[in-house]
Design goal:
Layout: H1 2-9, E1 19-24, H2 25-31, E2 36-40, E3 43-52, E4 55-64, E5 70-74, E6 79-89, H3 93-97, E7 102-105, E8 108-112, H4 114-117, H5 121-125, H6 128-131, E9 134-141, E10 145-152
Antiparallel strand pairs: 1-10, 2-3, 3-4, 4-6, 5-6, 6-8, 7-8, 9-10
């Protein structure tokens, strides 16, 4: 991704051009501890456990991709972007929603990706002047990872 950094420094051709970033389950696990993320073609499985009396009971929340359904939040205090997934199985939704970075909008589960993206090498290579201009355009759930397509706006 050295080309990405050099093009941004030179104000090259990547302004308003999509760049694919691959995010895996390991990166998500670092940001959202206690949850496991399994990516299959078009389906995301979020696994965890909840306490029931004296025992821990496993759950698996399943959500399907909706590739164009993304969000970007920019204001004075908050910089965030993420994806909206169609909920297939609601098992464990209460446990997932207790964590920062997840919220429910109707039948969609919103997942914040900015904290996950900030841990990547690509984010560290982006010059500070361009970091606040990053916007998500779409995403795809592939086998083993999440492909996020980002652009830098003017």
């Amino acid at each position: 991704m050295g080309i990405f950094k050099e093009d941004l420094l030179n104000l090259g051709n990547l302004i308003d051009t999509e760049v694919e970033v691959k995010l895996g389950g390991r990166e998500f696990g670092e940001v959202y501890p206690g949850l496991g993320f399994v990516f299959e073609n078009g389906l995301l499985r979020i696994r965890g456990s909840r306490k029931v009396l004296f025992f821990r009971r496993p759950f698996e929340l399943r959500a399907r991709e909706d590739p164009g359904n993304v969000y970007t939040v920019k204001d004075h205090e908050t910089k965030d972007f993420g994806i909206r997934l169609l909920i297939v199985s609601r098992e464990g939704i209460d446990e997932v929603l207790k964590r920062d970075g997840f919220r429910l909008e109707g039948e969609h589960l919103c997942v914040s990706l900015f904290p996950v993206f900030r841990r990547t090498d690509i984010y560290r290579d982006i010059p500070d002047t361009f970091r606040d201009r990053i916007k998500i355009t779409r995403y795809r759930i592939r086998d083993g990872y999440l492909s996020v397509f980002l652009t830098v706006t003017k």
